[in-house]
Each structure stands twice: as C-alpha cells, then as structure tokens.
Amino acid sequence: MDHNDIILKTVNLGKAFKGFTAVSDVNLQVARGGIHALIGPNGAGKTTCFNLLTKFLEPSTGHIYYNGIDITKERPAQIARRGVIRSFQISAVFPHLSVLENVRIALQRKLGSEFHFWKSPNSLNVLNERAMELLLEVGLAENAEEQTVNLPYGRKRALEIATTLAMEPELMLLDEPTQGMGHEDVARVTELIKRVAAGRTVLMVEHNMKVVSAIADQITVLQRGSVLAEGPYSEVSKNPLVIEAYTGSESEAEA
Predict the structure, then answer these.
(1) In angstroms, rounded to a whole number, what is the distance separating the alpha carbons of residues 100 and 253?
(2) CB atoms within 10 A of CB 180
C-alpha cells in the first residue's frame, strides 16, 4: 500500500498505568477514505487506543503519524485542528438548545477566532444554511427547531455526528456509535455512518459485529492491549485466534 494512502499510522504505540500495560506495541495503519473498525473483547484496550490517538492520554511508548507527520507530542487542540475529530469531544450537546443551535455552535467553534458576530448581521444566516445542510445530511432536518433534550436516543447520536461533521473532520473517530441502541436505531446510524464516510476517513470502536461486517473496510482486533489480527472482515472473522478471543464473550460478539 502506497504510504500516501495511509492517513494514520501508529508504531509500537503503548500505554502503561502504574505497572499495568493497557496497550502495548500497537502498529495500526488506517487507509485513507475507508471505514476502519477497532474491535476486541471487553478490556482489550480499544478506548485507551482512542485516547492515545486524540492525545487525551500521553503514550508511554511509540509514535503516531498523521498524513506522514509525527504528531505524538502534539496537544489535543493541535490534533483537532489537523482534522482529527472524535465524536464525543463535542457531543456534550446542549440539551436545552434546539437541534439547529447545537450544530451552529459547533460551526462557530470550527471558525474560532475568525468569527465575529459584529462583522455582519448576516453571518448567522450563513451558519444557519450550513447547519441545515448538515442536519439534512444526518436526517434531522425536520427536527431542527426541536429542543435537543426531547430527541430520542438514536437521533441524539445522529446529532452528535452532525456536530462532529461541523468540525470538518478529515479523520472522524467514532467511539461505540451504536451503543445502547435498539435494532431500528442501529440500522439507521449504520446507514448514516456509511453515508458520511464518503469523502472522509472513519475510525470506529464498535462492539456490534453486524455493524462492523456491514460497513468496515478494514478491521483491527485488539486483545489484552495488543493487535491480534488485522484485515477485511471476511478474513478476520475466520481467524481461529479471533474466534477464540471472542469465545467466552460471545454475548458481546453478538450484541
């Protein structure tokens, strides 16, 4: 694979907490323009991995490269400015604002200091137009004026995806996007992820194997903080080591 096609790469990435190794020697390669799923039994280190990639945690060992640049020492804000956006970073949606207002706030945040209300009375209108486009993209246009607190759970997750898209991610990190959802919502959000992945790269931690098999191009399986297997779903799901890792936590594999 041409290295230009690799958007994110980790080399010997590791994290130890007071003698406990949560993640060790993770060599991850995420191809540009695809959906890559990070899976594994509970306690495999998936969330720790995400926290290292977004620098919510400092790695104990190893390096992280984004578009060929070593970003290991960068702060979370610098990494976000590069276009690595994790859904929960801004998913603290404001429950008592409308759906539209929540997306508008994310758009303002993206514009940062360049944005000044006093410059033009129309600037909010411009944001409203973009906010509506994003709501259309995630299927929430008809909920624009609704108070966020009143949205059903699956739609709140769709709103989180809209606020993440407002930050214009080049690489979008989704942490358990379908967790706690009923079948109907899972199907809707799966379809949504597939749609918003067009033209960008998605790395997701996901426990639902149906979701993973339906939309992931590549899969990395973690077990006890290390990479157990990597490849397309058809290959990985037949790997005896992976089957063994999931035996005994079958309920999770089928959840």
Answers:
(1) 36
(2) 10
Tell me: do 64 and 89 sit in the same domain: no
Phi, psi (deg, nearest 5) at residue 162:
-65, -40
Residue with tokens 């005896």, as numbered in its chain: 240
DSSP string over 187-218: HHHHHHHHHHTTTSEEEEE---HHHHHHH-SE
Region for 237 from its dihedrals, namely left if φ exceeds 0, alpha if ψ lies in -120 to 50, beta otherwise: alpha
Show the tokens assigned to 252.
Answer: 């999770």
User: What is the mean pLDDT of the segment spanning 157-175?
Assistant: 93
Mean pLDDT of 75-97: 83
Residue range(s) defining the domain that contains residue 22: 1-82+171-177+201-255
Q: Is 93 helix (H, G, I), strand (E, B) or coil?
A: coil
- Sheet of 171-175: strands edge to edge? 84-86, 171-175, 201-205, 35-39, 218-223, 226-231
pLDDT at 3: 57
